[in-house]
Amino acid sequence: MAMAKMMAGSCSCPAPLLSLSPSVSSRLSPACDVRTTVFSGAFQARKLCFRSASLRESFSLLGEGASLLLLPPAAVRAGKPRRRAGGRSFGSCCWRAEATSDVTELNQAWQKKKKKTARDTNVMIVGATGYIGKYVVKEMVKRGYNVIAVAREKSGIGGKASAEQTVVELAGATVCFADATDVDSLKSAIGSRGRAIDVVISCLASRTGGKKDSWKIDYEATKNSLEAGVAAGASHFVLLSAICVQKPLLEFQKAKLRFESELANYGNGLTYSIVRPTAFFKSLGGQVQSVKGGGPYVMFGDGALCACKPISEADLASFIADCVTDEDKINKVLPIGGPGKALTPMEQGEMLFRMLGKEPRFLKVPIGIMDFVIGVLDTLAKVFPNLEDPAEFGKIGKYYATESMLVLNPETGCYDADATPSYGNDTLEAFFDRVVREGMVGQELGDQAVF
Ligand SMILES: NC(=O)c1ccc[n+]([C@@H]2O[C@H](COP(=O)([O-])OP(=O)(O)OC[C@H]3O[C@@H](n4cnc5c(N)ncnc54)[C@H](OP(=O)(O)O)[C@@H]3O)[C@@H](O)[C@H]2O)c1
Questions:
Q1: Same domain, 161 and 74
Q2: Where does the NAD(P)-binding domain start and stop, copy by copy (predicted)?
Q3: Using alpha carbons only, what angle is made at residue 5 by residues 421 and 416, rounded to the nearest 5 degrees?
Q4: Is 131 in the pocket of ligand 1 (CB under 6 A)?
Q5: How many C-beta neighbours within 10 Å does residue 65 have?
Q6: CA spacing 20 to 30 A to 46: which of 14, 58, 156, 260?
Q7: Same domain assignment for residues 242 and 110
Q8: Are residues 121 and 176 in the same domain?
């Protein structure tokens, strides 16, 4: 069972079980490794329970049967300070954590999978026509897997790609046309191929980030692909999620977290890898052409409200492909960024001016403007429900302008660039250079141009 449970340790309280969603357990890293039988870490109960709204959100997203124990203040006060294995001191009441995952069972399932070569492994990829999905298909084909790419008859931004174009685009894969929002359609399309599935990779995502669409795709359709995959024999599921779900304020983040939690708690020998990348290049290249044409670099606040370690499509696809084979990536939540240091918008702008040989010129927009627009849209949406999504898009824009795409330290509540792993070789500088020369072809944003 891929689920971490916490038991009251140093207090003389009853021994209630507290299930942790993957997002929470990832914050407790390195103590929370579900493949070890006993965690040696100790956590301050009050911090764990009350630290932030996002943690509470994660608890409430747990599935049926999960319970959250809020330690009574008296018990918290009665708790004795303890020392963690790493030597850090915690005040108040400390808990000892124990994992209940069955190491033997996990390893057996994994060992069985490892015996197969890439050529014998059938991998179903949903969201195969997306910005990342296309690269994952390419990478898996390159590595010699049997790839079954699931697509819609009309795919891509605005549904512009025909079935024929999709088959050409996903060369090397068997393209299977189905509707991921309909589990029966998905099951029968996969079943009609007459091949068992070994691994499912989901790169599905709402193309708009709208409220309903997020739940329909990031939760329901992704869950359908899990069900259809498992029905066809899949025993490993790789999920493309996002690092920003650590602080879930937006609807698509909540939908993703719900699915992450269900995936991690699925059981039945199903293993998983939850990949949470930082920013994609496409989200950062939008100003290259206007700056090249003499425009200012536009940023919010002082340009240092947030930072990210951007990762290219190809590098991320390679990391996702590694999740099919690497034992250290099973049953893990994996935040991942690209190479190099974390960059603020100001630093990205400076890099761009340097490359273009131009004098830096910035336009700093007060973040209050966004708050004002969101406030107006939120108010109007109460009367005109069709404004709900525009209000949500405003919130998405503000989130990306103010929150870093880096690992969030649950103890300090701060983003931590050093704790955000790097992977791959493609740098933002090389990407900017390419966009200067070739433009943003292939880097278009989604249907609402918010991500
Ligand atoms: N942008 C960033 O900086 C960033 C950073 C970290 C993480 N992420 C996350 O990465 C994920 C993937 O992003 P992406 O840019 O690759 O996504 P994308 O280009 O928008 O692709 C989405 C995929 O989902 C499919 N899909 C959407 N709606 C569907 C529907 N109704 N029925 C069937 N399929 C549907 C699309 O199929 P069609 O082609 O048929 O539409 C496409 O294959 C997202 O979850 C995002 O949150 C993004």
A1: no
A2: 127-326
A3: 25
A4: yes
A5: 8
A6: 260
A7: yes
A8: yes
- Ligand 1 centroid to Cα of residue 207, in Å, is 5
Does residue 165 form part of some domain? yes
Distance in angstroms (rounded) separating the CA atoms of residues 310 and 42: 33
Give the per-residue pLDDT at 291: 95
Q: Select the more confidently predicted residue: 71 or 150.
A: 150
Distances in Å between the alpha carbon of 350 and those of 298, 337, 358?
A: 12, 21, 10
Q: What does the pLDDT read at residue 451?
A: 56
pTM of this structure = 0.79
Residues 61 and 75 in one domain: yes
H or E segment to which residue 395 belongs: helix 388-402
Q: With a 6 A CB cut-off, is 399 part of the ligand 1 pocket?
A: no
Point out which residues pair with 96 in neighbouring strands.
Answer: 7, 42
Same domain, 27 and 149: no
Q: Is 394 a member of any domain?
A: no
Of 370-374, 422-426, 447-451, the least confident: 447-451
Q: Which of 76, 101, 126 is the last residue of a domain?
A: 101
Q: Does 33 fall in a domain?
A: yes
166 plus 228 within the same structural domain: yes
CATH assignment at residue 320: 3.40.50.720
pLDDT digits (tens, 9 = 90+) for 111-123: 677 778 999 999 9
217 pocket-lining for ligand 1 (C-beta < 6 Å): yes
Res. 104 pLDDT band, cuts 50 70 90: low
Q: What pLDDT sits at residue 268?
A: 85
Domain edge (last residue) among 288, 320, 336: 336
Tell me which residue has tokens 């021994």: 15
| Strand-by-strand arrangement of the 17-20 sheet | 17-20, 4-7, 94-99, 38-44
Ligand 1 binding pocket includes 129 (Cβ within 6 Å): yes
**Average pLDDT score, the chain:** 80
| 44: containing domain | 4-101
Domain count, the chain: 2
Same domain? For 92 and 113 the reply is no
Residue of the CA atom closest to atom 33 of ligand 1: 180
Tell me which of 217, 238, 400, 443 to substitute to probe ligand 1's pocket, judged by most ligand atoms within 8 Å of the beta carbon. 217
Q: Is residue 386, in this structure, part of any structural domain at all? A: no
| Segment 420-445, tens digit of pLDDT | 999 999 999 999 999 999 988 888 77
Both 76 and 148 in one domain: the answer is no
State yes or no: pLDDT of 26 exceeds 60: no
Gap between the Cα atoms of 200 and 420, Å rounded: 26
**Is the minimum distance from the CB of 396 to ligand 1 under 6 angstroms?**
no
Q: Is 155 in the pocket of ligand 1 (CB under 6 A)?
A: yes
Centre of ligand 1 to C-alpha 240, Å, is: 9
> Which has the minimum average pLDDT: 97-106, 135-144, 190-199, 209-218?
97-106
